[in-house]
Here is the input.
Amino acid sequence: KLLQDQEGEIPITLDCWTSPNHWAWMSITTTRTRKGQDDTDELVTHLLDFIELPCLHSAVNMAEALAKFLKEYGIEKKVSSPSI
Here is the structure.
């Protein structure tokens, strides 16, 4: 709900890796600014999801997992260009 209500576009970052036991993973994070205690802007990063990919981090697997995540969160029209 918080993401759906956020004004403007939502920046997201994807990070993929393979665990020592050969499982493929992808994390989805977002970073935003907020006012700190001294009224200065500070960056805050939130982990939005941590997804096990089926087999490899191929472009197809990553795109399918990202599309599913965006639809589940109802933000598919709020993300402009994910960073990988």
The mean pLDDT is 86. The chain is about 25% helix and 40% strand. The beta strands are 12-18, 24-35, 41-53. Residues 12-73 form one domain.
